[in-house]
Amino acid sequence: MKIATYNINGINGRLEILLRWLKEARPDIVCLQELKSETSKFPEQAIADAGYQAIWHGQKSWNGVAILSKTDIREMRRDLPGSDNEFTHSRYIEAFINGIVIGCIYLPNGNPYPGPKFDYKLRWFERLAAHAKDLADLDFPVILIGDYNVMPTELDTYKPEKYLENALYRPETRKAYKDLVDQGWTDAIRTLFPNERIYTFWDYLRDAYGRNAGLRLDHFLLNKKVAGRLAAAAVDKHVRGWKGSSDHAPVWIELADQDVPQTKRSSNKSKPLETKIEEAETHRQENEIPIADLQTLLKDAPKSEIPLKIKPMKATLVDAPFDDPGWIYEIKWDGYRAVATVQNGQAELVSRNNLTFDQFAPINKVLESWKLDLVLDGEIVALDEQGNANFGALQNWRNTKNTTLAYFVFDILWYNGRLLTAFPLYQRREILKALLPENDLVRLSQAFEVDGIEFFEAAKKMKLEGIIAKRADSLYTSDTRSRDWLKIKAKLRQEVVIAGFTKNDGTVKYFSALAIGVYDQKGVLRYIGKVGTGFNTITQKDMMEQFKPLITTECPFDIEPDVDEPSTFRPRRLGAKATWLKPELICEVEYAEITHDGKVRQASFKGMRYDKKPLDVVMEIEADTDDIVEEANLHADMEIVKNEEPKAKKSKAAKPKSSAPVTDLLISSTNDIEEKKIDGHLLKFTNLNKLYWPEDKITKRDMFNYYHQVAPFMVPYLKDRPMSLNRFPGGIHSKSFYQKNVRDSAPDWAETMPHTNETGEEKDYLLGNNEATLLWMATLGCIEMNPWFSRAQSPDHPDYCVIDLDPDKQTFDQVIQAAQEVRKVLDAIDVPSYPKTSGSTGIHIYIPLGAKYTYDQSQLFANIIVKLVQKQIPEFTTLERMVANRKGKMYLDYMQNRPGATIAGVYSLRPKPGATVSMPLSWDEVRPGLTMRDFTIHSALDRLKETGDLFTGVLGEGIDLKTTIQKAQSVFG
C-alpha cells in the first residue's frame, strides 16, 4: 500500500499538477494540506474522475486539509480534541481506510518568533500530542501524516544556522516533536534514511530548488501496530521542479501486508554509499521524469543552430573535498572527455581539443540509431569486469579481454534546435533523464545529492580516480576553467609530454623509463622526472613504434636533464642513456608526490592520451577548496541578483528637504501632565517628570521635546512606513515589549496599513505619517523609532539596502575600519552609500534602491558586499549569524534586509545610557576618534542646525542593480 502526503499550497490553482502526479505516482491514499479552498469549492468531481474518493475540510485562505483514497473512507474527526479560539483554522482531519486510522495534519507555521503565532503553534502541538497519546496505543494501525512545519534535526535543513530564530527550528518546536515521537511513534523517513539529507520543501526565493536549499517539514508518524510494515519511502522531488508547482514535493511511504525485516526494506538512499557508486558504474539509473514532460522542460530554451566543434566546460582542481548546500557530486571517470554531436543521423565524437575519436564507432552507431539531433558532453571509458574504469585498457579496448566500452553522459548542450547552455545544470540533467533511451553503451552518469566529504571518502575507498563537484544551478560555459565545477583527485594524476626515453646499461627492455615534462606559462617545456613502471613488454613494443619517427638529437627541454641522476631512493647510477623525442606524444601518469625540486616521485604510467595538444599540457596546481567554493557561491549570488529584473514599477519615494527648521520646545512647564494639539489632533502627555534615562537625569519631557524638534527632519523617513513599536513604559531599564498590531489601540485619526497574516487574521500596522503619529508613539514609551525599509505603497520593495556592522569585542575604531572597507567596495563599483551611527555600538550603511527590487534581491546584494569585505579583514569580522560561532568577532549583518525587519531609524533616540542618537554622518567623519557619545539628545539638534540632513540621498533614485552586479564581476573577478 502506497500512502502519500502533499502540501498542495492551493488545490484549485494547482489541480492540474495534482492530477498529473496522481496519474504518475498512483498512490492508494493521499493526505493534502493547505487547500486554500472553501469547503464548497473543493474540486470533488475532478478528484473522482481521477479514481479517488475524498473527504475534506476547507478554508478560504491558508489552511484546509483533505484525504483521498482509492477505496472507501470513513470520516472520524474534523479537528483535534480541545479548542483554541485565537485563530480560525482547519488543520486536522481523520479517517479510517483499509483498516488504518489516517490523521491528516497541517501544523501552524508559527512565524514570526517570538510572538503570538509561535505561542499558538506550541498550544496546537499540545492538543496534537494529547490526541496522539490516545491513538498510539490503539489496537489499530495509526499513521499521523502531513506538514508538521518542524525540522527535527540538523539533517532536515540545508543550513541550520540560518534558521536559529525560525519557528520551524526553534528548540521548543523540536522538543515538542520529539516528545510526540517518544510516545511510541516511528518517524518513517528518518528510520529509513538515518543519515541522509532528505528535503520535502524548497522556498520559491533565490531558486532554492535548483540549489537544493531545502527543508524536511513533511512527516509520517507510525504507531507500533503498523511501524513494522514500513517497506520503503521517497520524496517525488522532481514534482517540485514542475512549472507552477507547490513549494513542497509529494512524499510517500510503502507498507507491506505484514512486518518487513529491516534488511529487506528497499530504499536506494539507505544503501551504503559504496553500493550506490558501484551501481552508478555498472547500471543505468531509472528516469525520474517521464518522457511526456520533455516539451515542458524545453519550453523556455532559445532557438539556435547546432553548435559545432564546441569545447567542453572544464573543472578546477582543488585540494580537498567539501560539503556545501547547492552542490551535487559525480564520479570522476577515468577516460577520454568527449563531446558527441548528432545531426541528421550522423554522430561525431570529439575530444576536448576538437580531435575526432574514430576508434569508438559502436558509440556513434548507438547515438545515430536514436534519430535525435543533440549535443552531449560525457566521458568515454573502458570498464573491467567489476565495472571500474580502466584507463590503460581504453586505447586498445577491442583487444582487451573482459572490457566493456561505455560513454557516460553527464550534460546536454543542445537539442532539436534549442540551446540549453543557459539552463541551470539541474534542469539540463532533467532533460537528459527525459531524453536518453535505455542503453548499456551510452549511459547517464549519475549525480549524487550526498555529503561531499563522505562521497569522496567512499570513492577513495573504492580506488576511483576522484570526484567532481558541480553547483546544481551552474550554467554551461564552454572552454572555461570554471569555479562552478571542481575536481578532487583521490589519486595524484598528471598528463605529461613524452620528450624522450632512457635505457639502463645491460637492460633487454625496449626502454627503461620515459623522460617527461610539462609546459610552463611561457610555453617552455620543463623536465619533471622519469616514469619507469606501469608498462609491460607488449605496451613498450607498441610505444616504440610511435617513438621511432620522433627521434631527434636535440633535447626538447629548456635545460638538458641528468637522466641518470641518483636520488635518495636510488643512490647509485644505472648508466641510463637518453634518446630524445620531438614533444608530440602525451601520456598520463600517477605519482606519490612532487619533490621540492619539482620532480614526480614514484610515477607510474597509466596510458597514452590522444585527446589533447602537447602545448596544452601544464602542471595542474590544486587551488584552495574553501577559497574556490566561496568564490563560486559568491558569483552565483551575483548572477541571481543580476538576472532578476525589478518586480515592481519604480515608485517615487518622498524626498526630505536638505534642511528644516528646528522648532521651539513642545513642553516648557514643570507640570507632570500636559495636553497639546499636534497636526490638529489633541495629544495627552503624562508622567513628564519621570526619569527615562536615570543616570543622565533625562526625563520623559525631554524625550517629547526632542522628537517635536527633530520631527521636520525625521518624519520624511517614517512617512508611509509600517512601524514596529518597541515600548519602554518605565524608561531604559524597564522591561520592554514589541507591539505591531494597533487595530484596537491607535487613535481614529492615525493612518494604518491593513495586513492579513497566514491564519487569516487581520491586523493594522501604524504608518509614521506625521509628527502627531511620532509623538503618539512616544507617549506609549517608544524611545526608539523602528520603521520598515519599505512603504505601504510597495511593501515588498525596500527603498534601501542596509549593512549593519555589529561588533562584539571590537573597539569602535575597528567598527570604523570595517565601515571604510564597505565604502571601498561600494566606491569601486560606483554605488552611493550613506552611513549613520546605530546609537548603540555599531554603524549602519544605507544603499538607495528606489523601491525597484525585492527584499530578497536586496539581501543577496548585501551578502555579496559583506563577503567581499570579510575577505579583506577576516581577522576580526565574521559572517556567522550564530553568536556562539562568531568567536568574539564583528558580525557583518546583511540579514536585516527582509520583510518586516527593522532597525533604529535615522535621528531615533536609543534606550542606552547617555541618550544617544542614530545620527547620519559624512564619510569624512567616519575616522578613528569618532565616538557614539558625540551624538546625543543634547547635541543632535545643534548639529542639525549646522549640517542639515545628510541622509537625503537614501530616498533617492536608487542604483541599477543589474549594472552594479556586472561592474562588481569585472572589478572583483
TrEMBL record:
Domain ATP-dependent DNA ligase family profile: residue ranges: 398-523
Reaction catalysis annotation: ATP + (deoxyribonucleotide)n-3'-hydroxyl + 5'-phospho-(deoxyribonucleotide)m = (deoxyribonucleotide)n+m + AMP + diphosphate
Keyword tags: DNA-binding, DNA-directed DNA polymerase, Exonuclease, Hydrolase, Ligase, Magnesium, Manganese, Metal-binding, Multifunctional enzyme, Nuclease, Nucleotidyltransferase, Transferase
Record InterPro entries: AP_endonuc_1, AP_endonuclease_F1_BS, DNA_ligase_ATP-dep_C, DNA_ligase_ATP-dep_cent, DNA_ligase_ATP-dep_CS, Endo/exonu/phosph_ase_sf, Endo/exonuclease/phosphatase, ExoIII-like
Cofactor: Mn(2+); Mg(2+)
Pfam families in the record: DNA_ligase_A_C (PF04679), DNA_ligase_A_M (PF01068), Exo_endo_phos (PF03372), LigD_Prim-Pol (PF21686)
Highest taxon listed in the record's lineage: Bacteria
Entry EC no(s): 6.5.1.1
UniProt entry tagged with the keyword Transmembrane helix: no
Keyword Ligase part of the UniProt annotation: yes
Enzyme class: ligase
Region (Disordered): 260-284
Amino acid composition bias (Basic and acidic residues), ranges on this chain: 271-284
One MF annotation (Gene Ontology) recorded for this entry: DNA ligase (ATP) activity
Family: Belongs to the DNA repair enzymes AP/ExoA family.
Protein name: DNA ligase (ATP)
Annotated source species: Paradesertivirga mongoliensis
